[in-house]
Design a protein that fits this description.
With 124 residues, the protein is mainly α. Helix content is 85%, strand content 0%. Helix 2 (26-33) crosses helix 3 (39-65). The longest helix has 27 residues, at 39-65. The protein is flat, with a radius of gyration of 16 Å.
Length: 124
Amino acid sequence: MGALKFFVGLNGIFYLLYGLYGAFVPTSIAFIMGWTPSLLGLHEVRAIWTALAAMGLVILWTLRHASDLVPVVKAIMLVTAAFFVGRVLGLTLDGAGPPLTYFEMGLEIVIVLWGLVILRRVRV
């Protein structure tokens, strides 16, 4: 159970902090992402990253209140895999990406594999 809690807690903290960062410093996030946003773009960044922060809060709330964390681990793996698939789609349709793209994809693979190892250990 310790590995489940650690995995869920780490992901919850990440999404909460990353989401808050993007919500309050959208130009910095836009720069990291290679965007030059308009005013509408800044609003969109704030909205999307606030949703990421909310996802982090949901993950942390579930960590504190749920007795079964397996569905949360599966949900985190699904969301992480969706980020990966989106990047693969971008590479396929738009061409080779900058180094950050490949770093993020590697991190996403590690998170999904880590989740699989944890789930296998709890025999789900």
